[in-house]
Write a structure and sequence with these properties.
Oligomer: homodimer
Helix content of chain A: over 70%
Strand content of chain A: under 5%
Radius of gyration of chain A: 19 Å
Number of strands of chain A: 0
Distance between the termini of chain A: 51 Å
Largest sheet of chain A: none
Shape of chain A: elongated
Structural class of chain A: mainly alpha
Number of helices of chain A: 9
Order of helices and strands of chain A: HHHHHHHHH
DNA sequence: GTCTATAAGTGGATAGAC
DNA sequence: GTCTATCCACTTATAGAC
């Protein structure tokens, strides 16, 4: 695994992520990716079977990390905290991509899979309470920690984002949705 | 104005919005729009100069409504309330479109114009306070009222969404950002 | 206002040489 | 592992008849 001689596959992924972030998934062509790498389109096809494979490979790590998260049996607060850690440490750019290309990516298996996991995370986050307000608050908490994702630079310090997310999820004053 | 004999232009807009919502802007072709309308592509070009013109015409009303909103000299709470009214009464589907096709639409003049107006609205919403937390809260308030936009049906009752938005913007306990 | 026909270009993808 | 050359489906857009 670590003994490979070239890193072209990784370079393709890096450049593709760059380009998709700038112009969107459908707005970026394989020709452009190849040009920026100074190779030909055909070379890309040695490393990836299709264009969809390229973007899927980009989403892969994020999907796996979400699965890890969903397996833990922690409560809402710990869940959103761990989620914030993932966003901050590694997956910000990928999340930004997903968020700005929702329509384009929902037509792709890996994209639909991510949407599914986010839905499950959302359910776990609102815990037992299924009322509309808790539902909305759980969504907003997720948005709070990922709003920064990849637009020119981090805007909200990550600790502030997490604090707001936690407060939005369970506003002080009202005890968190422990009743019922 | 009210005396036109055909409504083809409006029918094109209706079908285009439908299709863009289902498959995204770049994922929908003029051929598909024409087919769903039982006309030919060429007919579309009688009513709109380009594909971009079609989507721009869809965003137009929303842009104008935002300009109206920005001209009023009201405070944050009134602003978000009025915004929620617009989302609820007329522009939900359009906002959903914008939100799910951010990348694709930023390459379009009308789309970039909308992003600009949202930025100004966000600034007005956080009023004088420029600290990271107020900034994030202002963004979240906007998200709160528009999260429902066009996915199969309204999820959060609009009054609940507005209440949460107002609370997120200025959590009770802390007085709203009225001082400097 | 809508049609047929077609231009002109791009896209993703493959074959086969090196 | 990368190249040249090519294919073909499909796109936006236009010309001109009806």
């Amino acid at each position: 695994m670590a003994g490979r001689r070239t890193d072209t596959r990784e370079r393709i992924q890096r450049v593709a992520l760059e380009l998709f972030a700038e112009q969107g998934y459908e707005g970026s062509s394989l020709r452009e990716i190849a040009e920026r790498l100074n190779v030909t389109k055909a070379a890309l096809y040695y490393h990836f079977r299709t264009k969809e494979d390229i973007v899927s490979s980009l989403l892969e790590g994020w999907g796996a990390a979400l699965d890890d998260l969903l397996e833990r049996e922690t409560g809402p607060a710990e869940l959103i905290t761990a989620y914030a850690g993932l966003v901050e440490s590694r997956f910000g750019p990928v999340i930004g991509l997903v968020q700005r290309n929702t329509s384009a990516l929902k037509a792709i298996a890996a994209g639909a899979g991510l949407a599914d996991r986010m839905l499950r995370l959302h359910e776990r986050l609102r815990g037992g309470s299924a009322d509309p307000e808790s539902d909305l608050r759980a969504r907003l908490a997720l948005v709070a920690v990922q709003l920064n994702s990849a637009e020119g630079g981090p805007r909200t310090p990550s600790d502030v984002a997490l604090a707001v997310a936690l407060d939005v999820l369970s506003p002080d004053g009202k005890a968190a949705g422990a009743g019922t």
